[in-house]
Amino acid sequence: MNRLFLILLLFSTNLTFSNSEEVNSDPWENLNRKTHNFNMTLDDYVIRPIAETYDFIIPEFVQTGFSNVFDNLGTPVSAANNLIQFKSVGFITETSRFILNSTFGIFGLFDVASRLGIKERNEDFGQSLGHWGFASGPYLVIPFFGPSSARDGFSLAPDYYLRPDLVRFEDNKSDLALNGLSVVNLRAGLLSISDLSGNDQYSFYRDAYLQRREYEINDGKIDDSLFDDEFD
Asked: Is this model's pTM higher than 0.85 or not?
């Protein structure tokens, strides 16, 4: 049901080409706040307790290995999106990282590429659309996924099917188990981070997400128009 709701919501939004004066808006704030509260409640009562148990039981070096594997499986997605954006250096870098870590790094357990000085150049389909001028559209909080936008939410599907681990398994249970482990492992790595969201947690998450996405799409350049008084 959540997937169907997301698909209908995304396709009801017309993505337009952006310009330098465009300001992101939050016309779905009422619904977004409810979804945000649902996600935070789910984290408080389900995901975080599981992650704490996982962190207590699983040794740190094993968690690091899992993180490396999941990062490595996402490298083909990044390589493809570097190619879409005509970023040849990024494409070669990400492809090299995947080959090195998948072979010498034993299926990604060890980040050999980083030790050799080959740094990540992460890209996703939402960044690719932004690179080619598609506006982000309204801010959107997705059940289970969290902060996003109409453009970035739509982009989840292409990135999902580019991941080699997610198209290899015919058994849905294997997909669910792998994704579940990925979520728990990621959440366990964030347990030490304190909540610095202030009085309005929703606004903090929204503004932080929009700023980070603008930074990623523009390769480190921030558009100040994203943070006009509208989000004060």
From this structure: no
